[in-house]
């Protein structure tokens, strides 16, 4: 695309000017007219000599798009579409009101695709890393059914729910994470700097030390001797683990184990099923065929294990089985949810009941998240108490024994 400088007059007759990226002068004129500006002069700008260097540095420092950006985009698209604003004018207005370079570039590319006659879903499909497969599928369905305005509203609500769940889980885990990091740092400092000092003191006793103390001294010596190997092994272990989790098998096994974790597994399971129920209900309500809806939802639940169970449901429906029977065969839904799915299938109100299932799972997720800190704190207190007790006994027990021996000799 080429940068054009333009000058024109707005609806009030005032002189305005600016710069626009477009394929040709005609596209610039169309964009200006779409935002209510009558073009007077359009000229191509010469690229600066060091433009490549500037663009390289700008791209290195550019902030990527996040969920908040897509949420704001969805709400703006819903508001402007509901008001009946033409699609080209919508993107021209959004581009003019956005200051984030990555967002501006994406809006410009989508608008250029629309100028070339592409559908909105096709133009947005060039940015799957920002929107995701489910978002793009829903936009495509909204175009096909003429319910694009409602789809943008539902997508905004969906993104807001996802963002809220992640933020609440992050807040609940922040305190335990800080405590675990502090404990790890404390153990390293004690074993490297504190225990060696006491080892020199204990060496002057010329007496047998308690087993706990000998264990602490041996662990401290081992850590001091092998800390480069431990550091390298730790980094290599993290790299290997991350590489394994990127494989299909590793991701599947980890996603399955997350659902069985003692405290967080219940939250992950309910949040994932709430995401499935709301996404599936939204797809059905928008007129997406069941097989296609389950295919898209399976890729967007953010859990490979549950995604495979949803694909199992899809395969069963393709064979002609009922939704309720396929859902029961997955083994991930509660009896009450299965009953609601069966009732919704019989009455033709599956989308409404799935929304109720999503609301129920969301309420249970909120309740579980609120109790997450209360569930973790006792475990953390026990771990801290055990660590303090171990260090106290290992360090002070020899001193106590020496003091008792000295008092016995003095009394004798």
Task: Provide a short characterization of the protein structure.
By secondary structure, the protein is mainly α.
Per-chain topology:
Blueprint: E1 2-9, E2 15-22, H1 25-34, E3 38-44, H2 51-60, H3 67-82, H4 87-97, H5 101-115, H6 120-124, H7 128-131, H8 133-145, H9 148-203, H10 211-246, H11 248-258, H12 264-285, H13 290-298, H14 304-318, H15 323-330, H16 335-347, H17 350-370, H18 372-411
Antiparallel strand pairs: 1-2, 1-3
Helix pairs in contact: 3-9, 4-5, 8-9, 9-10, 9-12, 9-17, 9-18, 10-18, 12-13, 12-17, 13-14, 14-15, 15-16, 16-17
How would you describe the overall organization of this protein?
- With 412 residues, the chain is mainly alpha-helical.
- Among the domains are: 2-60; 67-157, Up-down Bundle (Receptor-associated Protein), CATH 1.20.81; 264-370, Up-down Bundle (Receptor-associated Protein), CATH 1.20.81.30.
- The chain is 76% helix and 6% strand.
- It has 18 helices and three strands.
- It has helices at residues 25-34, 51-60, 67-82, 87-97, 101-115, 120-124, 128-131, 133-145, 148-203, 211-246, 248-258, 264-285, 290-298, 304-318, 323-330, 335-347, 350-370, 372-411, and strands spanning 2-9, 15-22, 38-44.
- The chain has a three-stranded antiparallel sheet with strand order 2-1-3, with helices on one face.
- A hairpin with a 5-residue loop joins strand 1 and strand 2.
- Helix 8 packs antiparallel against helix 9, helix 9 runs antiparallel to helix 12 and helix 12 packs antiparallel against helix 17 (350-370).
- It is extended, with a radius of gyration of 31 Å.
- The relative contact order is 0.07.
